[in-house]
Design brief:
- With 1075 residues, the chain is mainly alpha-helical.
- Among the domains are: 2-48, no CATH class; 79-178, no CATH class; 194-265; 311-398, no CATH class; 695-797, no CATH class; 799-892, no CATH class.
- The protein is 54% helix and 6% strand.
- Strand 9 (445-448) and strand 10 (451-454) form a beta hairpin.
């Protein structure tokens, strides 16, 4: 119709003619264009109708404020296919429709639709005489309150959904409005009767099925259809998996029926067993993880206990344990009091403050447990100034066994052995435990979904409905569950082996703790192929045990793959060394393929100390020349500290070639033994040969002999390699022989040893030199390296000959070491023919060394020993050089003349005095200019000789000219002492500075030779009262009475200057002549 309408409109509008004109060049069909338009429009209309039919809906119709909304999902099944349903029943002769399992939808509204449908069908004219009857088979519970609530339908606004039970029942009774007749059916099966029915069903096919699983089935599946279905599936699976048939797996019918019950209640999860993603797989994986993790933890605890037992006799370890017990006891006592131990507290023992660690020390327990006294341990709480005192007797009463060390050790040993036994029992349980055992067993936990849970808790989380959990916890579903899900074709194999292949090998999951018998292992290897033994999925303790025990060729393949030692390999080796039965065989063969076996055993694997030592001993007994073994610092440290634990080194049962292999490992690791005496004779010889020992006193005596000196020269004669070892470990060697032996005993070897030490460790040459025998000394210093010379000088180990001293000075000058040597020797031995110039050079250098040789006497003595005569001008002068001149003069190194004394011009008098004391000719060359400024010191010194004084007095006029007041006084005193007459001119000069008494006495012998004028001048210079005698302005003068004064006055009286004089006591009264 649409096509015809469009064609007519196109004709009337002339559109068709326009198309014909436009396309005439392409298609000239004349009037047939009208037919073409009709055909095209009709085709397009049909195509659009086919594409859009049923796809366009009216969702909403609006008219003003009113709107009607339609939803395509609101149409029911009956509405959509009502025509077909009505047609079916109108055309058929059926008049009864049976509807079953409608209650499975848990929706009571469906009965309203069915009632409407029944009414509609029975209203058909063809059905008036043959009405259609709907028969329903269903549960009444669909109409109960819970059902209504699930549907979201209330009981009515006036009905209380909880409290008004009668009204709720009234609503529930409305079910009868849908039915003309309700026929009740007595339940065919209940959980009480299901048990017998199941038993009857199973007796027909499998009477051996356990009553336990039957009880569970009747409790959780009281449904005849489900039970029959489970029975039927049991029969089918029993046939398909060839249960009980030749060539089939040795499976259990009870377990198979349990799996059929699980299948009936968990259909989707049962299907996922095939891919390993089921909930049962999750439980199984959790159980294996639990076994592995808890075995790791228990093995760690077992190692700790074994190590404690291993070190039980160690006093430090025992003291630490006892200290913890004591501190724990003290804390319990304090907790029982009103006080608490805060941070602000301290302990006191025997009057001294100590920390808690002191109570864990052997020193404390040695003192505290001794019999003497009754010492106290005091805890003082500073905040309250309260203290608790615990004396030994009280503690002994409460903690008696800790004061019996031997008893405590035995008690502790017994406790540790019991603990080891407990751990081993738990390990044995875990190794063989099935899923049910772990659910009902001890509360082992495993990490699951970010928390630690027991397997029981995990199982309840995974299976909250009950049946699956009960089947697991009772062991009806166990680790063999996978074997009941599909048939397995191929070789005859045990169910245990097959389960291992499925869960481990096929899924690429290592389960090292999976238990397998020897036959199981053979079956697994046969099934998967020997070439796969390097696959980590086959890493299993029992597999490895069997391969090793039976010398299977596949053992080498698996061991070779383990040598890679990745995370998986490490985990398996750790587990095997903890639980394997052939540990020693494993390690012995592993050592032949694993270059890092020593590193693994020492550093990478967690082992008890005694077991680590045992396994390392096995390695050393099975070292292979084909393997380049790797070692590191940890291996070196372990071997050096624990070699005594290796029987291979102490028991003489190892062949020579193996000893050399062991020695090569020690050499490569740079490990050294500290006690050669703990080694067997054969091993000791090799270790001495390879120098694999520490340089200590005990080892040196093992090499040289217990009574032999341990000098380097002696060791060299006994063992050249030991000698070289000592040279390269001089620090250890020197510490070993300290106060026990000389470093060199034979003087003939002294030079050679020193040169060797310089070539090895020159920093210790001084210790070697100083520790040598006193007889060891060098005659020619140039026999050894120049760097040794200071050390030899320090120890005074070379002769102080001119040759040696000259050589030493040429390199080092005068240093402290040489200075000490020369000071000790006191002289330098000069060989015949020594060059005088060289001797003078050495002498000058020695004289200049006051910083090293502060004693001028010693320097002069040393220079004197050279037999050299020095020009005084070449002698160096320093602040104390004047003293040196005196000693040089004494030792006749310089000439005793004025030139020598003149070099002392700038020095103080004591220096000059020393020179004068040493001089025997000073009075011969002394002149005024030479002693200028020192005349008084020279004349008044205690030991000034008469010859010197006379020489000076002989030239007194010259000395007076340059003399100071002190010099003049000294001259006057000496002249008076020597009773020497001095010239009048000298006396006149002295009168100005010298005390009058001295001048008066000196004038007496010269009065007759002095004229009156000069005499009066001299008296005038003397000052009062003598000055009055010269002035004549006084009639009477009083002067001190003396012989000199009397002589002077008498002379003046004679010369008419004095009239008379009279002595009155200590004075003289002199009357002057009046003019």
């Amino acid at each position: 119709m649409v096509g015809l309408l469009v064609a007519v409109l196109s004709l009337l509008a002339g559109t068709t003619e326009k198309l014909a004109v436009e396309f005439v060049s392409v298609l000239d069909i004349g009037l047939w264009w009208h037919v073409a338009v009709l055909g095209v429009v009709t085709s397009v209309t049909l195509l659009l109708r086919w594409l859009l039919f049923g796809r366009l809906h009216v969702r909403q119709i609006s008219a003003g404020a009113a709107a009607v909304t339609l939803d395509e999902t609101s149409t029911s099944y009956f509405d959509q296919y009502l025509d077909e349903i009505v047609h079916f029943f109108d055309a058929s002769t059926y008049d009864i429709v049976i509807l079953e399992d409608i209650d499975r939808f848990n929706n009571s509204r469906i009965f309203e639709t069915l009632l409407s449908l029944n009414t509609l069908l029975n209203s058909l004219p063809s059905r008036r005489d043959r009405p259609i009857r709907f028969v329903y088979a269903m549960k009444d519970s669909i109409f109960d309150q819970l059902g209504l609530q699930k549907e979201g339908r209330g009981l009515g606004g006036d009905v209380d959904p909880i409290g008004d039970a009668s009204k709720a029942e009234a609503v529930r009774a409305n079910r009868t409005k849908f039915f003309d007749l309700v026929i009740p059916v007595v339940p065919f099966i209940t959980h009480e009767s299901a048990r017998d029915l199941i038993r009857q069903l199973l007796d027909e096919v499998a009477p051996e099925v356990s009553m336990g699983v039957v009880d569970l089935a009747s409790r959780y599946l009281p449904d005849m259809r489900l039970l029959k279905n489970a029975r039927n599936e049991f029969v089918v699976f029993c046939d398909r998996i060839r249960l009980g048939q030749p060539g089939g797996l040795d499976l259990n019918k009870t377990e198979l029926f349990a799996m059929m019950l699980y299948k009936s209640s968990h259909l989707a999860d049962f299907e996922r067993i095939r891919t390993g993603d089921s909930k049962l797989d999750e439980i199984y994986k959790a159980s294996r993880d639990l076994v592995r993790e808890n075995m790791v933890e228990l093995n760690e605890k077992l190692r700790g206990v074994r190590n404690t037992l291993f070190h039980l006799d160690d006093s430090a370890s025992r003291s630490e344990e006892l200290g913890d017990q004591l501190l724990s006891y003290i804390e319990r006592v304090v907790r029982a009091s009103p006080y608490t131990i805060a941070n602000n507290h301290h302990y006191i023992y025997d009057g001294t403050a100590v920390d808690e660690d002191y109570f864990r020390s052997p020193e404390f327990w040695s003192d505290f447990s001794s019999d003497g006294g009754n010492p106290e341990v005091v805890l003082r709480i500073n905040a309250s100034n309260i203290q608790f005192a615990f004396n030994r007797e009280d503690l002994k009463e409460d903690l008696g066994d800790i004061f019996d060390p031997e008893g405590w050790v035995e008690s502790e040993r017994s406790r540790l052995i019991d603990l080891i036994s407990q751990y081993k029992k738990r390990l044995d349980f875990l190794r063989g435990a099935d899923v049910g055992d772990l659910i009902n067993g001890p509360d082992f936990k495993v990490s699951h979904n970010t928390s630690d849970k027991t397997l029981k808790s995990i199982a309840k989380d995974v299976f909250p409905d009950g049946l699956a959990y009960e089947l697991l916890s009772n062991g009806y579903i166990n680790r063999n569950f996978t074997l009941y899900t599909s048939p397995y074709h191929g070789r005859i194999i045990s169910e245990n082996a097959k389960r291992f292949i499925i869960h481990s090998f096929d899924r690429g999951v290592m389960d090292e703790q999976f238990e397998l018998s020897g036959d199981d292992v053979e079956a697994v290897v046969c099934e998967v192929g020997q070439r796969h033994l390097n696959d980590p999925a086959l890493y299993n303790i029992d597999i490895m045990d069997h391969l090793l025990r039976s010398s299977h060729s596949g053992a080498e393949l698996m061991l070779g793959s383990l040598s890679a030692f990745g995370d998986v390999q490490r985990r398996f080796i750790q587990s095997y060394l903890e639980g394997g039965e052939e540990k020693e065989l494993f390690v012995s063969q592993f050592a032949s393929v694993a270059p890092r076996v020593l590193v693994h055993l020492v550093e990478d694997l967690e082992l008890a100390e005694d077991e680590r030592a045992l396994l390392l001993d096995v390695v050393f007994r099975n070292l292979s020349d084909r393997v380049d073994y790797e070692v590191d610092g940890f291996v070196s440290k372990y071997l050096s500290q624990n070699y005594r634990l290796l029987p291979v080194l102490s028991v003489g049962e190892v062949d020579g070639s193996q000893i050399y292999r062991v020695a090569s490992i020690f050499s490569k690791a740079k490990a050294r033994v500290d006690d050669l005496g703990s080694l067997s004779d054969a091993v000791r010889r090799v270790f001495v040969e390879k120098v694999l020992y520490e340089i200590n006193l005990n080892n040196l005596r093992q090499i040289v002999g217990s009574e032999t000196p341990l000098g380097l020269d002696v060791i060299e004669k006994r063992d050249e390699k030991a000698y070289r070892a000592c040279l390269h470990n001089l620090s250890d060697y020197l510490a070993a022989i300290k106060n026990k032996s000389e470093t060199v005993t034979d003087p003939e070897s002294f030079v050679d040893v020193i040169n060797d030490v310089m070539g090895a460790e020159s920093r210790f040459v001084s210790d070697v030199v100083s520790g040598a025998s006193e007889k060891c000394s060098l005659q020619d210093l140039e026999e050894v390296d120049e760097d040794v010379w200071p050390h030899l000088a320090y120890s005074q180990r070379f002769a102080p000959s001119f040759h040696n001293v000259r050589a030493y000075l040429g390199v080092f000058g005068v240093d402290q070491m040489l200075g000490d040597l020369l000071s000790s020797a006191g002289k330098i031995t000069v060989q015949e023919g020594a060059d005088e110039g060289e001797k003078e050079s050495v002498a000058c250098e020695l004289l200049s060394s006051e910083g090293v040789l502060p004693s001028a006497s010693m320097r002069a003595q040393l220079v004197a020993s050279l037999g050299v005569q020095l020009d005084v001008e070449t002698v160096p002068v320093s602040e104390e050089g004047g003293e040196l001149f005196a000693w040089l003069l004494k030792y006749d190194v310089i000439n005793d003349d004025a030139r020598a004394y003149a070099r002392l011009a700038g020095f103080e008098w004591p220096v000059k005095e020393m020179f004068i004391k040493q001089s025997s000719r000073f009075s011969d060359y002394v002149v005024p200019d030479l002693v200028q400024g020192d005349l008084s010191n020279l004349l008044l010194r205690k030991n000034a000789g008469r010859k010197l004084k006379d020489a000076i007095l002989d030239e007194v006029s010259g000395y007076v000219a340059v003399a100071t007041r002190e010099d003049l006084v000294a001259l006057a005193k000496v002249a008076a002492q020597r009773r020497r007459e001095l010239p009048a001119d000298v006396l006149e000069v002295m009168a100005r500075e010298v005390p009058p008494k001295l001048i008066v006495n000196l004038l007496q012998p010269k009065l007759q030779a002095i004229d009156t004028e000069q005499l009066l001048r001299i008296l005038g210079f003397l000052g009062l009262p003598y000055e009055s005698l010269a002035r004549s302005d006084e009639a009477e003068v009083t002067i001190p009475a003396s012989k000199g004064a009397q002589a002077i006055v008498s002379t003046l009286e004679e010369r008419g200057v004095v009239a008379s004089f009279e002595q009155e006591g200590s004075h003289m009264r002199v009357k002057m002549v009046e003019e």
